[in-house]
């Protein structure tokens, strides 16, 4: 029998624009020190979602996948940054540790793609977001908060998206 978790949110995005809008709503809720972990295969909508997050957070920087550079930085006018890390090409968690994730989090927010590759150095509290390809337009999205801060963020996000 499945166990219902009231903190987990599940969405079906029906277009890239809707995925981006969900990202905008989530980005507006982020604070310095927040960490988002995005899991999902290639083509699952991670970059589109991050474009929305950066916009909602207040950055007008161009968002692209950091697969080949490992980390992209998006700035907003107050000097805070979002570090967008892609762990896909990392061999192990020690490579991520060398990047000083704590400093990235201290300077703003951190978004990690392929977090399962660096589990050992992930913050204990974070918002895990699983994205999956459904068809050419639709993406499944599951938000799993870990820790009280992220349960609160998930509750606010649910209210923004669904009302009530």
Describe the model.
The protein is an alpha/beta fold and 164 residues long. It has one domain: Rossmann fold, CATH 3.40.50. The chain contains five helices and seven strands; from the N terminus they run E-H-E-H-E-E-H-H-E-E-E-H. The chain has helices at 16-29, 46-57, 93-98, 101-106, 148-162, and strands at 9-13, 35-39, 71-75, 81-86, 108-113, 126-133, 139-146. A seven-stranded mixed sheet has the order 1-7-6-2-5-4-3. Helix 1 (16-29) packs across helix 2 (46-57) and helix 1 crosses helix 5 (148-162). The two termini are 29 Å apart. The relative contact order is 0.23. The model has no long low-confidence stretch (mean pLDDT 89).
CATH homolog superfamily: P-loop containing nucleotide triphosphate hydrolases
**What does the average pLDDT come to?**
89
Strand content: 25-35%
Largest sheet: 7 strands, mixed
Distance between the termini: 29 Å
Look at the structure and give the CATH class. Alpha Beta
Runs in which pLDDT lies below 50 for 5 or more consecutive residues are none
How much helicity do the residues have? Answer: 25-40%
Order of SSEs, N→C? EHEHEEHHEEEH
- Report the radius of gyration as a whole number of Å: 15 Å
Q: What is the oligomer described by this structure?
A: single chain
Supply the key terms.
Rossmann fold; single chain; alpha/beta; globular; 164 residues; 26% strand; seven-stranded mixed sheet; 5 helices
